[in-house]
Amino acid sequence: MSKRFSITFWATVFVSVVCLSLVGVDVWRSLNARGFQLLEMERLGANVARAMAQQADDTIKAADTALTDLVERIETDGQAAPALARVQRQMTAQVANLPQLVGLYVYDENGRWIVNSRGVLSQSYNNADREYFIYHRTHPERGPHVGDPVISRDTGKWIMPVSRRLNKADGSFGGVVLATLDIDYFRRFYQSFDVGARGAVALVGNNGVLMLRKPFDAERVGSSMRDSELYRHYARQAGGARAGSAFFQSLHDGEIRLHSFRPLEHYPLFVTAGISREEMLERWRRDTFTRSIGVVVLAALIGFFGKRLVDQIKLRALAEAELRKARDALESANRTLERQAMQDGLTGLANRRQFDVTLGNEFSRATRHEDTLAFIMIDVDYFKQYNDVYGHSAGDEVLRTVSKLIRALTPKRPGDLTARYGGEEIGILLPNTDVTGAQAVAERIRQAVAHMQMPHSGSPLAHVTLSAGVATISPKRGVHLAGMLVEAADKALYVAKSEGRNRVCVAQPE
Length: 510
Ligand SMILES: Nc1nc2c(ncn2[C@@H]2O[C@H](COP(=O)(O)OP(=O)(O)OP(=O)(O)O)[C@@H](O)[C@H]2O)c(=O)[nH]1
Known about the structure:
The protein has 510 residues and is α+β, with helices and mostly antiparallel strands.
């Protein structure tokens, strides 16, 4: 069964849908903005990492090129005093040219200084124990080696050692050429990147040793990052695929950052640029919060005014319903009045007014269709005596009973009408009925009343009886009038009365 929803229901649904849509669209927009913000940050991190990796590569490469020159010169010119003096001048010039260089050093196969960029040779320094020295002594490869950061014995600064192996003429280990890169040089460069107040960037060896970090923390230079999630993730990647980004929580400060990491192209190091997730989402949160307040206020306003609107609609619907009810009551009262105006109060039959209207209509119809119209005039016999003997109220009751019976026995075709014609007279109008039919109806009624045997001591017949006059007419325009039919039936009734009552007489056709 389909249920019809009210206008207030739909109005409520509409207001709710508008409010929910507003909130829904805002939530969807906020989530989108969040995703976009993260993407932006990832892009920024990747750019910073690329710039850092490029700078580190270039910085080390410059120092390494100087080392390659030195190796070639020493291996070609030998280690005689004049040759070393030239080498020393070249080293001093290169250190002066390359701001990242702290110094250039050449060690013999026992770790003693042969020559350095500063021109001062201290015999007390021996670097045979340094990691890079041991590495070259034990590895015949001629490529560059980037060592773990150390504090320079010469300058006391944190340096990153980049070195190459020197070979003797017979190919055996002949010593090491070393360039020390100023960690502070990298730090100054990293300072220029804006990764937020809680961001962090770092240069890390592929072995997990931290070269440098921003924010700078001297104590952490040279420390191991192997246990960090970030390093383990990086170490799991292979080759060029090592560039990427992911969220990691710092073991150091607990901050969750989006780290973009990238290996150096030529050296076994990688850089990472981490942007704090909280910081990155802080602005988004602030924006979202402000806008959400606006949306909630707007939704509340729409809800509030929507509710008022729905209430108004409800009130209006109620008023309309009341109005409809009042109109229906009025119409029903009108119908009752109309019915009462056309009805006889005592018997419930049509009254004389209705009878006259119906007679006029049916007479016209019969004239048009050349039909027969029959009329029965019924009159209670000795009714005056009945009133006299039993009283007027009893007389009324007899009229009611007789009327009820007549109504029950009268045909109920459209147009048939039983009316209280006047006083104790009852008329029955039967359109399209011939004299036989009308007579039969009258006879049936007469017999039924007689059969009821209602006592009537004032009548010689001893009980209530009826007399009836029946008349029919096939009206012709300009010849007959409606009154003629009634008159004829009245005459027939008079005949019935005069012939002794309790009988039906038919009017003679004229
Ligand atoms: N109780 C009652 N009497 C009515 C009503 N209308 C008319 N009468 C009475 O009916 C009587 C009609 O009497 P008459 O016309 O003289 O005729 P009758 O006594 O019926 O005698 P016949 O018609 O000649 O048999 C009158 O006494 C009226 O007062 C009514 O509504 N109620």
